[in-house]
Amino acid sequence: MKALVFHGPGQTSWQDVPDPSIKDAADAIVRVDAVTICGTDLHIIKGDVPEVAPGRILGHEAVGTVVETGGDVRSVRPGDRVLISCISACGRCRFCREGHYGQCRGGGGWVLGHTIDGTQAEYVRVPFADLSVHPLPSALASHDAVLLADIFPTSYEVGVLNGNVRPGDTVVVVGAGPIGLAAIATAQLYSPGRIIAVDLAASRLAAARDLGADATASADEEPERLVEDLTDGLGADTVIEAVGVPEAFEMCTRMVRPGGRVANIGVHGKPAVLHLEDLWIKDVTITTGLVDTHSTPMLLRMMAAGRLPGAAMVTHRFELDQMEEAYDVFTRAGETGALKVVLGGPQHDTVAVPPQEQ
């Protein structure tokens, strides 16, 4: 099959690789029908995630069709159309039993495209399939459903829930890429008083307004002053960091009110300064986190009911073999206006899977 392979910082290629095979009785082999690129993939390629070894197939978000399952899989069978979660869950360890699947210690957590081969390929092996894939209703398009693999649960759980967004709050979202836009969309479920979006790209600020932001500010034009003006000098109740660079995080800590919350979603490859000399007296809560995806079934129901934006966030579509072109467009989002890019691969009737070892 073909797959996007990481060869070290700044180096990837779309190349031939062996087909995946069942390695454990809880595995499923899924044909990839729609896949997308995450900002985390860009961090990996930059070298910000050193745990990703050269030779790894990237990607952790996809929709596909099950073609084979291990003997222990009960919830899906060949032919089922499924959402592949960015998080795999063993279901047995302490963290899984508490619903903290992102911290799984039984071989799960964020493994796809990280410590095992991922979804930016024609086929993918999904471990712990009973808890790591979700059957999809036929009415939900793959190009919409793939947004539920990562960006919606991540923004909702790590941004909105960790940020404790409440009715009437002033919420600032720093970074209006796909994660930030999903945070804007899901924050509205809690009826905040206003949502302010901050970004460098005019196209992304326009998208933020379309998805419900009440005000926008360019990151290079003192957005702190706008927040101060709109809150009578108090600061925002919740500030969500959705970029992953030190400047963005430090900006968030300057915007939050005393007693407010800073929810960091961004993947950081460099240290950020924590100005405790200013923050210690303000009763500020700072949260970090990897998504658990416990909210995925609920978000899936909401999208199927038309309560979440899907296609509105997809700006570019490609065939699967245009992976390198898609990466180029997504990497240059400031020039191309890309938000979420989705790739759909050619359809196959069969997959050659080696016989399972006894």
UniProtKB/TrEMBL annotation:
InterPro entries: ADH-like_C, ADH-like_N, ADH_Zn_CS, ER, GroES-like_sf, NAD(P)-bd_dom_sf. It comes from the Bacteria. The keyword Zinc applies. The keyword Metal-binding applies. Keywords: Metal-binding, Oxidoreductase, Zinc. Its cofactor is Zn(2+). PROSITE patterns: ADH_ZINC. CDD domains: FDH_like_ADH2. This is Zinc-dependent alcohol dehydrogenase family protein. It comes from Streptomyces katrae.
